[in-house]
């Protein structure tokens, strides 16, 4: 083989190795790790309700009448 051909082959191989190592260095890495602290869920809930019943005066009088029942 010609010396220039050997040099060109070695240079091509070194260039490819350099490009592959650079491409491997650029790949992103994702790390998932569990937290050492427990998960805290703070539920400060205040529930208020109000029930209003409106009754017509006639119906109220009807129910207060003892003769109906």
UniProtKB/TrEMBL annotation:
It holds the Pfam family Lipoprotein_19. This is Lipoprotein. It comes from the Bacteria. It comes from Photobacterium profundum 3TCK.
């Amino acid at each position: 083989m010609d010396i220039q051909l050997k040099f060109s082959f070695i240079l091509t191989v070194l260039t490819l190795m350099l490009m592959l190592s650079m491409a491997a260095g650029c790949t992103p890495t994702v790390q998932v790790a569990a937290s050492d602290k427990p998960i805290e869920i703070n539920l400060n809930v205040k529930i208020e309700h109000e029930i209003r019943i409106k009754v017509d005066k006639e119906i109220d009088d009807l129910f207060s009448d003892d003769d109906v029942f």
